[in-house]
Amino acid sequence: MKYLIDTANIEAIRYLNEYYPVAGVTTNPTLIAKENGDFWEIVKEIRNIIGPEKMLHIQTVQKTAEKIVDEALLVKQTLGGNFYAKIPICEESLKATKMLKELGIGVTMTAIFTPAQALMAAKAGADFVAPYVNRLDNTISDGVKVVEYIVEQFKNYNLDCQVLAASFTNAEQVHKCAVAGCHSVTIAPKIFESLIAHPMTEAAIEGFERDWEAVYGNKTIMDF
Ligand code: G3P
Description:
Layout: E1 2-6, H1 10-19, E2 22-26, H2 29-35, H3 39-50, E3 55-59, H4 65-79, E4 83-88, H5 91-102, E5 106-112, H6 115-124, E6 128-131, H7 133-137, H8 143-156, E7 162-165, H9 171-179, E8 184-187, H10 189-196, H11 199-216
Parallel strand pairs: 1-2, 1-8, 2-3, 3-4, 4-5, 5-6, 6-7, 7-8
The chain binds SN-glycerol-3-phosphate.
């Protein structure tokens, strides 16, 4: 399982990249607009924080295949490093995917809501597909089931495309994706914390501290 951060918030990325096993960052126009700053300043700072090796998936905003390709190339050339052009699925983006793959540019097909969309994206050459788990759950559909079907399809047809599940509102959805064999998830900053928090863990840690201090006070192992 690869964990990516789904935000354009610089402070959150700096913090999570320092503490968690983060494989990269994904953004979309909504997340960039939320920061309400200069696009290049934001994405350059993200690259600066995560370094050249980790994945950076930046969504394009153009509407035709040729312009999507031009925009993706510009972002790739400006930011360098491990880059994926994130493109919402439609006919133009399928065409753009084939063109980008010929140029050796990584592609993440996003806004995926069905296994059929995911299969088409993978056949066009996408490296990742991003199904929106919580948005599916919100429409009385089953987001994790969709992820499960996509994982199974890629296995059945031996496709070299990974599932990068997105749109989560809680740790349970992420856990179920992991059980379904999902290759990677991109999650909002607050969900990282809920993936490791547990009241019994907190109680256990408090117990260790209490028992140690009762005998050794403030002494640490390094003081012996
Ligand atoms: O990367 C896609 C993701 O940001 C969508 O998440 O929470 O807006 O459904 P959400």
